[in-house]
Design goal:
The chain is mainly β. It contains five helices and 35 strands.
């Protein structure tokens, strides 16, 4: 049978057992659209026991929000949770008042309360949304979703697929284990779930992404886990990365795809294996719980016998380019952790030794010798930058732990690691720092406001590795 591309896409979406998006797509409109944060139960596999979740609109992940660059977003968050919340639009360059950080950009949304978020999306890319109130608990409970902004001229593919990776910690009956906020998690690698989820269902080799030989797929990967790092590889295939954190990068092959919490990667996968073949998608990280899914080829004749010839390079967003001749140097030192060397830090302006910070305040990390409570009013920013300032930020990870560092309201170029220039000079909003590593990132501070800068291992953020960078 001969398939047109349109016929193929229609038939592929209906394939039994394929990993289709389990949530509805939302388009921008003039009126506000409501997202309800509430409690519900959801089975992790067909016929299995139900797990208790918190989530948006009664599903995990929450609704897929899809817009075009330059469109207006108008969303009302309706809080049906038993606790305060607020929503952060991770990676979207919003005005400060719309950034969703309680006690910094807005008051928390109380139970039964509502808050209107309204902003224009300036950049295309793969983003996501999640709470910034007690995020170490609310995110692993299920409050997260994908936020996609389409390019004016997207690359030509047969299918565009979004995968959200996460994990959950459940007991033998399938209910969530209520052990959030432990100092042992704050001070170590963070709280890891005992089940990995792909789009809110159990991951594993049995999860099948059904493809047809010759098909080209754009796969958008989002790591919504609170602490888990993934290192993905597709057996028999070499994906090509086209974007990191939603920002275009020179297409390049990647036999290994590392995603720390909060990070995103867009890749092109040309499915050229024989019909009927099966290829595991492995997680090779040292804390892996096994394969994520399998790429399963249908028995149909190939859609094409050579890869699609259309170009795959994305048109870049218009980000302000930092000028090395104008850079101002700034420094942030990260210290602490359970195995950290003794340090002196300050909590609420009071100097303390590291063991006092941990024992008296439940904090474990310092940034520039300061530890912040997640809900503290952060009156003193880590850095104060002028609007339009060209910044070279030197980050020193003086700890034995990995830290995915996330900056709100801006993107930065990754300039150097351990003093060596990076080959791609890629744009990021979240970058994974290895233990004892130094890193230089550069950006233009063009978005006025107080912006969170924190580790996206959310237990680390709650344990003190968070603060604000003021642009004024």
């Amino acid at each position: 049978m001969t398939f047109s591309r349109r016929d193929f896409i229609k038939s592929a979406a209906a394939m039994t057992g394929a990993l289709a998006l389990p949530w509805g797509s939302v388009r921008a409109a003039n009126e506000f659209r409501t997202l309800r944060a509430g409690l519900f139960d959801q089975a992790l596999r067909e016929g299995g026991p139900e797990t208790n979740f918190w989530g948006f609109d009664g599903s995990v992940p929450g609704p897929l929000l899809r817009y075009r660059k330059g469109e207006s977003v108008r969303l009302t968050i309706d809080n049906a949770l038993p606790v305060d919340t607020a929503v952060h639009w991770h990676g979207v360059r919003v005005p400060s008042a719309m950034d969703g950080v309680p006690h910094v950009t807005q008051a928390p949304i109380a139970p039964g309360g509502r808050f209107d978020y309204e902003f224009v999306v300036p950049d295309s890319g793969t983003f996501w949304y999640h709470p910034h109130q007690m995020s170490f608990e609310q995110v692993p409970r299920g409050l997260y979703g994908a936020f996609i902004v389409e390019e004016d001229r997207p690359v030509e593919v047969d299918r565009d697929i979004v995968w959200i990776l996460s994990d959950v910690k459940i007991d033998a009956t399938g209910r969530q284990v209520e052990d959030f906020g432990r100092i042992l998690d704050f001070a170590n690698d963070g709280r890891l779930g005992n089940r990995v989820l792909l789009d809110g269902r159990l991951a594993g080799e049995a999860r099948a992404l059904e493809v047809r030989s010759g098909e080209r797929i754009r796969l958008r990967l989002i790591n919504a886990a609170s602490a888990r790092i993934f290192d993905l590889a597709v057996a028999g295939h070499t994906p090509r990365v086209i974007a990191y954190d939603g920002q275009a990068v020179a297409p390049h092959e990647a036999s290994s795809l590392v995603l720390g919490p909060g990070m995103r990667t867009d890749l092109i996968l040309d499915c050229m294996a024989p019909p009927g073949s099966r290829h595991p998608i492995a997680d090779r990280h040292r804390r892996s719980l096994g394969p994520i899914a399998s790429l399963v080829y249908s028995d149909e004749a190939p859609l094409r016998h050579t890869p699609l010839g259309a170009p795959i390079e994305l048109e870049p967003n218009a980000l302000p380019e930092p000028d090395p001749a104008s850079w101002h140097d700034h420094y942030i030192m990260f210290q602490g952790g359970m195995r950290g060397e003794p340090v002196i830090g300050a909590v609420d302006g009071k100097p303390l030794r590291s063991h006092e910070i941990m024992e008296s305040h439940g904090l474990a990390w310092t940034m520039n010798y300061t530890a912040e409570h997640e809900h503290a009013l952060m009156h003193v920013p880590l850095l104060q930058l002028g609007v339009g300032e060209h910044v070279l930020l030197h980050m020193v990870n003086d700890t034995d732990y990995v830290h995915p560092m996330h900056l709100h309201g801006h993107f930065f170029r990754v300039v150097a690691i351990d003093g060596r220039r990076t080959p791609l000079q890629e744009w990021r909003d979240t970058v994974l720092m290895a233990p004892r590593q130094t890193m230089e990132v550069a950006f233009v501070a063009d978005n006025p406001g107080d912006w969170m800068f924190h580790c996206h291992i959310l237990d680390h953020a709650a344990g003190g590795m968070m603060g604000t960078i003021r642009v004024a």
